[in-house]
């Protein structure tokens, strides 16, 4: 791997640049764009730049405009025989390659390009695919005038309901019971299918043939055997349970045995085959007798009835496991096909469709010609944040730029150590494949950190350098120490005139905390870590108030401090701990506003507005913190009919305003009429809550344009609450820009800079909300 020299990097073939955090990745991308513009004499609209988010495209566009103007001024000065406005080795090097006439022409070209920057081809991957499908609609087979949809949940809901009706139409009694017990209804099934969505979609293992899946009828036969066996062997089993010296009596005490016998007596008297087996049944199986019931040094008690119960348990578990795999596989295929058919009929494309349709076109019979036409339009491409790509995205660029056989100019920039978007489908293995395709001779590294203090860079080098494979895949994701430019050393943190260690590890004291086998319990560890973090922040700010804690020459301020967390829950813990210390904070999170408590309350209030005559819904809405009624006030409605009628009339008026003038008018009147704004602002974290409410109001207003009617909008909000929102417009917004401590999720913090950073929960792990392990494998 070679250090990157942006002035001399060959602008042909595939080049992969690994840019560690703070090494000036955007600066280098902008300079490579400038070089390509001049050295290949391309129009500004023919250099493709792809990055990860809309915000990143705007930032890149702004940085590029600024750099083009700087370069134009620099070259103009050189043409006039004067020095540039500022010392710039890269621009000096580039200017030194040009004679005066070409230099003047270059200055004009750069200035003209800066004025036409809106024509630059700077896209997100979805924006790029959408543009290509529009321009090459005939070649790609895409709709000529598609409508981009960010919400296909209604189509998926309809498809799931269709599958549910078809599946149950031919199902027997036991299969119907199992369907209802497992999923409850089509919405529950659809929620289970979420894990199978992706680009590309995961494959369920094992891949079953119809004959591999046992039916429920065989369970009836085996259950009848269990019932007959209990009639025949009951006294033997009772005698064995009560007299066996081999049984471990803490697990098989008299109470446990009696409960098991009572359960088996009841089970033997029922006709209906059970689809769920409690512990009382499992007490009769060889597996539990061996695992929990037998003393050390004794043989496991055996009996033909135990064998019958064990075989029934095993067959029931295997039947349900394989039936679940079959249903999820079939339902997933059906829902995807029906949703695709619905989108085709309505000429809709989702964000995933943009990638999949272009990928399919490039891999199809006319793919080579389509790739040539796109390549002719964009003969050079710079792909930023490439560590966050996925197999479909990489395959698109492989096809367009003819990798790896005859690579056209393609520059991939990223850092696999910062690959944190797997929850959005990013696949580090796609990056690793691109790295192998590029070959060792075409891989470059940026080795100087311009952002962090020298001693922090040295500490990080030491920490990761001690491990032989800190990122597991050492051949594909090696760790290379970086140098420090020392730029941040000019404004260090000083406490009483001394620089504390740049990288500090704090250990929790176990005194007074709950321990489990000598280790602090997770709950206590969370509380203690949040309290310790808040205490240290409060200490630093108190020192700053006394003039003893500074950032360079300036006093340390609250907004100089960031706390990195993984989730909204962790952020809440830190903010509560800070409030107890009297320290104000603000949260920056990549969590969806639909996962907030305000969204849950909004759902209750919308349900009431949809049906204001329902007293139960009205009382549930009143109990929210947004409306603020306490229990005694709600109980008063039982005795005060006039109060209840007055309240219903108010909500009926809000309902009518919604129906006549739209959701926004009705809900704004509710906010005003019920005094919501002032009440919420007075609550703890009032600004945060009010920001969420106004954000939800904005999103609901937009959704009401495509989901008219109270019922449709209510279902839309329910779907959003149930799904994992990922859109940028759904992310929680900053509630204040005052001088406050910043509590930031790791995903939201990417690219941001803070003088002082705390990481109170580095040991925690994130588990998806409400998701249990699945009884199948995904590949």
UniProtKB/TrEMBL annotation:
One BP annotation, GO: recombinational repair
Protein name stated in the entry: DNA 3'-5' helicase
Sequence ranges assigned to domain UvrD-like helicase ATP-binding in this UniProt record: 1-453
Catalyzed reactions: ATP + H2O = ADP + phosphate + H(+); Couples ATP hydrolysis with the unwinding of duplex DNA by translocating in the 3'-5' direction
Domain of life (superkingdom): Bacteria
Segments traversing the membrane: none
HAMAP family in alphabetical order: RecB
A Pfam family recorded for this sequence: UvrD_C
Keyword Hydrolase recorded: yes
Matching Gene3D superfamilies: P-loop containing nucleotide triphosphate hydrolases, PCRA, domain 4, Recbcd, chain B, domain 2
A single GO molecular function term of this UniProt record: 3'-5' DNA helicase activity
Keywords tagged on the record: ATP-binding, Helicase, Hydrolase, Isomerase, Nucleotide-binding
InterPro entries per record: DNA_helicase_UvrD-like_C, DNA_helicase_UvrD/REP, P-loop_NTPase, RecB, UvrD-like_ATP-bd
Binding site for ATP: 19-26
UvrD-like helicase C-terminal domain span: 484-751
UniProt enzyme class: isomerase
Keyword ATP-binding: yes
GO CC terms in record: cytosol; exodeoxyribonuclease V complex
The enzyme's E.C. designation: 5.6.2.4
């Amino acid at each position: 791997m070679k250090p990157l020299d942006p002035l001399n990097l060959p602008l042909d073939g595939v080049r992969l640049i690994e840019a560690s955090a703070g090494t000036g990745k955007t600066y280098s991308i902008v300079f490579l764009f400038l070089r390509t513009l001049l050295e290949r004499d391309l129009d500004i609209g023919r250099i493709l730049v792809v990055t990860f988010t809309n915000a990143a495209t705007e930032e890149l566009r702004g940085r590029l405009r600024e750099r083009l103007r700087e370069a134009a001024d620099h070259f103009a000065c050189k043409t006039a025989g004067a020095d540039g406005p500022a010392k710039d080795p890269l621009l000096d090097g580039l200017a030194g390659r040009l004679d005066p006439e070409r230099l003047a022409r270059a200055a004009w070209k750069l200035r003209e390009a800066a004025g036409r920057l809106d024509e630059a081809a700077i896209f997100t991957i979805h924006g790029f695919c959408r543009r290509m499908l529009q321009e090459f609609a005939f070649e790609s087979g895409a709709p000529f005038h598609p409508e981009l949809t960010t919400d296909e949940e209604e189509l998926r809901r309809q498809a799931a309901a269709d599958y549910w009706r078809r599946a149950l139409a031919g199902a027997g009694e036991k299969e119907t019971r199992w369907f209802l017990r497992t999923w409850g209804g089509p919405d529950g099934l659809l929620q289970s299918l979420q894990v199978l969505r992706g680009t590309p979609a995961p494959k369920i293992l094992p891949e079953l043939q119809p004959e591999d899946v046992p039916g429920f009828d065989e369970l009836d036969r085996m259950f009848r055997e269990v019932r007959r066996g209990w009639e025949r062997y009951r006294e033997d089993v009772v005698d064995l349970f009560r007299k066996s010296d081999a049984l471990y009596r803490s697990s098989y005490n008299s109470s446990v045995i009696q409960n098991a016998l009572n359960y088996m007596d009841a089970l033997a008297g029922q006709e209906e085959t059970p689809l769920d087996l409690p512990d009382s049944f499992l007490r009769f199986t060889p597996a539990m007798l061996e695992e929990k019931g037998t003393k050390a040094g004794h043989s496991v008690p055996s009996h033909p009835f135990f064998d019958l119960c064990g075989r029934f348990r095993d067959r029931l578990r295997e039947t349900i496991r394989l039936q679940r795999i079959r249903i999820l596989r079939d339902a997933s295929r059906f829902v995807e096909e029906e949703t695709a058919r619905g989108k085709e009929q309505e000429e809709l494309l989702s964000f995933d469709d943009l990638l999949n349709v272009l990928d399919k076109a490039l891999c199809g019979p006319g793919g080579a010609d389509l790739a040539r036409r796109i390549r002719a339009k964009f003969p050079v491409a710079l792909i930023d944040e490439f560590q966050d790509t996925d197999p479909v995205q990489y395959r698109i660029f492989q096809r367009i730029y003819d990798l790896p056989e005859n690579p056209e100019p393609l520059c991939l920039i990223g850092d696999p150590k910062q690959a944190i978007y797997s929850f959005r489908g990013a696949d580090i293995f796609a990056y690793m494949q691109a790295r192998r395709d590029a070959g060792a001779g075409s891989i470059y590294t940026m080795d100087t950190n311009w952002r962090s203090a020298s001693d922090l860079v040295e500490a990080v080098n030491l920490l990761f350098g001690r491990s032989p494979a800190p990122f597991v895949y050492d051949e594909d994701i090696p760790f290379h120490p970086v140098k420090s430019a020392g730029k941040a050393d000019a404004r260090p943190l000083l406490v009483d005139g001394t620089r504390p260690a740049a990288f500090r590890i704090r250990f929790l004291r176990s005194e007074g905390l709950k321990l489990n086998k000598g280790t602090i319990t997770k709950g206590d560890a969370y509380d203690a870590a949040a309290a310790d973090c808040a205490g240290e922040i409060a200490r630093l700010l108190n020192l700053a108030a006394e003039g003893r804690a500074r950032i360079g020459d300036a006093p340390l301020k609250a907004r100089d401090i960031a706390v990195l967390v993984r989730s909204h829950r962790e952020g809440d813990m830190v903010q509560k701990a800070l409030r107890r210390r009297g320290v104000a904070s603000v949260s920056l999170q990549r969590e969806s506003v639909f996962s907030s408590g305000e969204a849950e309350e909004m759902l209750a209030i919308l349900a009431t507005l949809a049906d204001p005559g329902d007293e139960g819904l009205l009382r549930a809405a009143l109990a929210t913190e947004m409306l603020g009624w306490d229990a005694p006030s709600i109980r008063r409605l039982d005795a005060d009919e006039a109060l209840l009628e007055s309240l219903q009339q108010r909500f009926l008026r809000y309902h009518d305003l919604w129906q006549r003038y739209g959701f926004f008018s009705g809900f704004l009147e509710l906010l005003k009429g019920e005094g919501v704004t002032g009440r919420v602002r007075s609550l703890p974290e009032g600004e945060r809550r009010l920001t969420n409410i106004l954000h939800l109001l904005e999103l609901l207003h937009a959704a009401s344009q495509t989901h008219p009617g109270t019922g449709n909008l209510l279902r839309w909000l329910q779907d959003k609450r149930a799904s994992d929102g990922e859109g940028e417009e759904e992310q929680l917004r900053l509630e204040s820009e005052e001088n406050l401590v910043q509590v930031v999720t790791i995903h939201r913090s990417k690219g941001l800079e803070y003088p002082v950073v705390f990481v109170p929960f580095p040991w925690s792990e994130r588990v998806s909300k409400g998701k249990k392990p699945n009884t199948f494998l995904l590949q």
